[in-house]
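Example record for the data management plan.
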Amino acid sequence: MADARRNQGERTEPQAGEGKMGRREMLVALSAAGAATAAGMLFGGGASAFGEALPGLTVGQDVYGPAGGECCGNVAVFDNVAEMKLADLRERTIACTVSYYAGWEASPLGALGGAFYDIVLPEKFSGTPDGFGDHLLASGRIAVLRKTGGLLATRYGAKGDDGATDSYPQLQAMALQLKKQGGGSATLDWAGGAYGIGQTITLWNNTTFGGPNWLKIIAQTTYDCAVVGVPGANHVHITELKVDCGYVPAQGGLYLRRNNASWHAENITVIRAAHDKSRKGGRAVTCEAGVNPALYGARKAVIGSIIAVDCYMGLCLAGGTNQEDSGVIVNSLVAERCETVVGLFGNSAGYPHPGVSMQHIVQNVSARNCGKSVTYGRPHGLFVSDRGSNVRIGQFSISNDPGYGSISSLMMGDWHNVVFDGGTFIGACDQLIRFARFFEADVIRDDVFATSNCEFRGIKHVGTCTDAVTASLADDAKVRDTTIELSTDAVSSPAILTPGMAAKTTVRFKLQNRTYNTRIEGLAGAIGSIAQYADYPNTSVICGLHEQH
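Corresponding structural encoding:
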């Protein structure tokens, strides 16, 4: 079979009755490519590597085949790429592979990786063939992959074998091809199992990347993630990204770094992302600060949805005075069995950071069985902040099963100009809000930062907690100009406010407790540390009310 097809490639003119394929035979052979793709790339006059339009057929011929049912005399057909590479194909021949590897033509999914190639002379090819999409033939000529309609991972030889093979070289070759041509799309097409990767896939400007198949990290990568943009990569679109980090230490899913501006990431799913105390990481999605805003511009990123399961952190947002990270919107986040749902990090000096340097919006957060500190033996939180600034988080709903146990805090850290726009937490905790330094270490030795100009509004708790709100320092400057509105259920501490919180002169509370049917409102100093819910059963009290006559 192979000899007959190779011989056809050696002739300028096919002999009558020899070396021709019927249209239906061709399309059946290319079941993975699809009839529509084949018609557009071959029969419909699509552009080729020859730099000109190929002779096409009429619409009627495209559908029903030319007279006699025969066509395509200048097409050489091969079972796979290895067979094609051995053929002595003349320039301007069109090669067609049924599948990429031997045996893939019998895949339960149909033939995988089948494609069309234009045969060109080396001097007419720019650069060196990567050996994954474009191939050097035994004859010295080059088979150039038809790239009409975008690139497919299986056409570059990526194997969906759940990580038994490292397909990073093939997938990175796709990204490099898009860089070479100035942009385009690369699809992680379904191949029956995840594509294993032992390195981070790097993207350039004007790239559309993703698809229905999974990526599985099989080794520690350079950037501790599956996909990243080069510094300053702009106008990148992630259509769908599914990553299994395999509990490889410090690995994560998507990493927007160093001014990756104007990104759109639609659907991100990351599972089994483990933190490492030295390398950190373990975050499903990270939006980290850049280092040169003047050169690369602002962030400007929109993330449609994130699903994080069995990860250290669902979403990490970072920024700072010297590391701009602004204009980021996350429309939805779902987390399950994660240590932290959202982490905010001010990664440079100059706290509190201005809005032009750090600014994000996160909406519609849902989580289940999250918040336990497994990696570190110290207090923790579902939402944590290490000098996070200018972030708005709206509409969260978090539920921990009774068997999950109690967590340290719903919210922990130092915050500036951060607003929580309402949400519900169902479960047990020590404190709902803990104003204390958060840091990724076993022991947090300093407490030098403060919370200022924040609003924690419309937060409802169903379950038990020891204290509603605590502060690590009684110093008035530890928490300033902040509004806290909480609805609590069962609070085991008898005092409404701890002494540390009662010392704050510019913190305004609106507290409601279901157990005593009590509502307390006023400045922290007016409420004081002596007042107890039991003192005001079935009562609504405004403390410190001053009337002028």
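Summary line stored alongside the record: The CA atoms of residues 178 and 184 lie 6 Å apart.
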